[in-house]
Amino acid sequence: MKNTDSTVDAVSDFAHGAVDKATNATNLAVDKISEKGEQLKITEQRLVKEASDYVRDNPMTSVGIAIGAGYLLSKLLSNR
């Protein structure tokens, strides 16, 4: 009975260690994903501001680009 108890304890300790390692790895991954998400949010805000500034500073060019892009998209989508 003593041998069985020590085997069960060893397996239990191993399982707990594996669960702890998996938990730590998961927490690290969540932290990294959260950090990257914040970086993406900041980048998105910067790009939106830059685009807004460009449109404000160059309204006619922006309208021309929009018309050209719309025309190209309509040609691409109408061929399907």
Automatic annotation (TrEMBL):
Domain DUF883 intervals: 51-80
Top-level division of the source organism's lineage: Bacteria
Entries under Pfam families matching the protein: DUF883_C (PF19029)
Protein name per Swiss-Prot or TrEMBL: DUF883 domain-containing protein
